[in-house]
Amino acid sequence: MQKSFPISLLFVFSGILLAQEAIPEIHGPQSSRRGNLVVFETNEPADWCLTPLDRSLGKWSVDTSGKMFYFASNEPGQYTVCAAILVDGQPKILSRTFTNGDETDVQPQPVPDPDDLGAWIRSKTEEISFTKNYLTEREAIAACFQSIADGIQRGAIRTAPAARANMRMCLAPKLLACSTESRKLWTQFLDSLSEEIEKRCQNQPNDLQRLRALFGEIAEEIRNKKYDFPKRISYFLLSYLKTLAYASRSVSIPALFTPMFNSSGWFPESECPDSLNVFLASAPVGDYPWDETDKPPVVHWSDFEAVVSARAEFRDRQRQAGICDWPWIIAERFGIPWTDPNQGSLGTCAGFAADTASWCMILQHLADGIELEFVPTNPYPAWVLGREDARYHGGGASLSMVLNGINRYGRFPVAKVGTYAESIRGRTDWRKRTEDAEPFQAGCCYLGHLSSREMFEAIVLCVRAGHPVAFGGSTAVSNTPVYLDGVKTGVLRGSWAHATAFVAYREIGGKPYLAHMNSWGKAYGVGKTENDPASIVWLGGENIRRMCEGRYRDAFAITYVESTPGTVDWSLVSGQR
User: Fold this and answer.
1) Contact (Cβ atoms closer than 8 angstroms) between residue 446 and residue 556
2) Are 5 and 262 in contact (CB under 8 A)?
3) Over the stretch 340-384, which tens digit does the pLDDT of each residue have?
4) pTM for the whole thing?
5) How do residues 519-540 score in pLDDT, each as one tens digit?
6) CA-to-CA distance for 506 and 464, rounded, in angstroms?
7) Cis ω on the peptide bond leading into residue 52 (within 30° of 0)?
8) Long-range contacts for 211-214 (Cβ within 8 Å, ≥24 apart)?
């Protein structure tokens, strides 16, 4: 069933216009004086955000209490307050633009700090939340406060001075481990937080239980994902919106997003939130119905081509704005360890190509603001089932067989079925384990029927649009890369019967290059200048065209990948493929 998309939406977000009809409004003033506290209100509880973002700290101060948003600033200019709410179970974005003061305003009042500690923490960590490793660093900082609170609770820390000393000792190595970009910001925040703690304990500085309560509250608020608005609407999309070079451009966001999610009926069938709100709503989407179909559709290229053409134009604008959507960069941004897949001596390359393309698609979904779980999977079971369905008993497998495996049965979680290394040592009736894989099926677009020229153009377009491609061919890529202006590029040499994946796009000298990901572990070595993974080498368009002209070629693109909402056990990711 194809979902229609309401395009009557007008939402001003850093110069980009969006729109929506028949939804509640934000009530509040159209203008305010510098330094005055103003209040905005909705009829429903909301998660709030303000643009432009306060990139230098202290220019404005905000606080929220569900239905209300409080704002004060000495900085004149035009602002947009945004509220994410749920209407009939669906996330919606409201907005209201107002002007704060002008250059004729005099005697600005001091910017107020929120009285509530949680609101204070949220306002003071706003800028840090846009740094590269924020999520990982946040957990480490919060763990320090929680460990001291727990130590007090257990009686291991018995005095307030000891609690403060232990806190400094605990935080020091965490700050050293922070990125250069964020270390200064975390240090400034913790210095301010220390003053705030002392202010809240000024009448009883040695009250140990008061410190315990404060440290526990701080740990909870630093970790609090409820207010993690920037992460929900995607680091990459926000970076695009914030780019001043594009702030004045009028871009139709519905026109950009609608094709990806609502063309030709390939999107999951029942009750899907519209694509704009999937990208922009900060409300939780734990009930997002990625798994509403018995089997995701395999779409024809004649239908999917229009989808990726529109999507590629949007990705181009992101890249022009300086946004990097390479999967290993996305993984780093979300704190997901990257692994270089290794098939060993078994002919499972097609299984690895399909699995690799699928989890790179999941990373793109995460970057696009869709809250799915990154689940490490074992490529072996789908490879086996695809071969069995084709009644094939020879060596290796075709990509068509594996497409059937990941589409019909799904990708098998390591946590449920064990690792690849464990699977190839034993015998398992994988058909009895398909329930474990069903929530992780993949939608695909088969490209193997295209001519060599059409296949080359389709592969480049799909990867440019953010849709990884599994490719099988007979033209080999040498294990010895060549560095071109510091870029680790691949060289074609000899022949093979092998399947790999194309997972990222870039241009060098105005010509397209795709990241070619192999399943031979660290075959290419870590990039000497760009630190790209050892399983990755960049192939120029001419080499990809030659691969598509080989004696044997087969390919399919990943359209979307099902997964479950929730938090992932990152310990299962590293070293389990």
Assistant:
1) yes
2) yes
3) 999 988 889 999 999 999 999 988 887 776 667 888 999 999 999
4) 0.53
5) 999 999 999 988 899 999 999 9
6) 8
7) yes
8) 211/152, 211/160, 211/163, 211/164, 212/148, 212/149, 212/152, 212/153, 212/163, 213/149, 214/117
